[in-house]
Structure formats: structure tokens, C-alpha cells
What does this fold into?
Amino acid sequence: MAVFENKFVYQSILWRHVRAWWHYIDDIFMIWDGSLTALDDFHKSLNGVYPELQFTLVHSTVQIQFLDTLVYKDGDRLKTDIFVKETDRNSLLLYDSNHPRKMIDSLPWSQLLRVRRIVSDENTVSKRLDEMCTKFVMRGYPEKNVSDLKKRALSTSRENARSNIVAL
It folds into this structure.
């Protein structure tokens, strides 16, 4: 993909409309400032290089999902929130599963930190942490432990959560 990007993406005349380009394995998130017609042309040009390599285009001027993140416009700013598929059935590891205790005990903290990292609107953080705590309690995790971790996550700044300087 690096060779493809260097040869066909970055060299495209339409690349000038790309304000951001991030990818994770086979998912790409980009911010485009050109017209929808130019976006369609860019998409077609990439899909025209190799028939066996085809890109799917999903776009919106309001909000879009990328992996486990929902990116949305709030005025002239971009904000982020947790994205949960409608088909989510809370498949978090059961508390009484036969896995190493340290791993089981670290899961709520890692997931609460994930919420803290992703959710950019401070007014939404507590709600999303509550939702995550409920998922863990439903899977048998002790409510007191989960509640204590929620308080700790709330007292952790988003910047610290994002820089991975927070330990369990």
C-alpha cells in the first residue's frame, strides 16, 4: 500500500484537496475540502489503477464513523465520540472466565481509558463512561471496582489518557 500511495495517491492532481489522511490496516479516514465531483473523480482514479484493488467511498458533511470512533461537526469544529454498532451485543470478557486474573482485572480500566481518549466533548464523557461501566457490570464485574475505576477515569485528563502516561 505504501508504494500504491506514493505512486497514485500523493501524486494525484486531486491530492491538493486532502487535508488529512490516516489509515489503519485497510481503513482510510480523510478530510476533503474539494467538491463532491472532485471527490468522486479521486475515488474513480484510485479504483482505476488495479481492478483487484477497489476502494469503498463513504462520505458525509455532518458525521462519519471510523473504526470505533464517530467523528462529527459541531459548528466549525470536529469532535469525536465512541461509535458502537447497532449489532453490538456486549461481548466483553466475562468476569468469571478462565483467563489470567490480571488480564480480567485490567480490562475495565483499559476500556474506560479508551472512552476517555476518544470522547472529545467533556459533557458526554460521563455518559459514555456510565455506559461502559454498565456493560462490565452486566458481564459480572464487581460494581464497586468498576465504579472506582470510573471515578479515576473521570479524574484523568483526556490529554493524559491519550499520551498513555496513566497506569492501573
About this structure: Residues 160 and 166 are 7 Å apart (CA to CA). The chain is about 45% helix and 15% strand. Residues 101-118 form the longest helix (18 residues). The beta strands are 18-24, 27-32, 63-66, 69-74, 77-82.
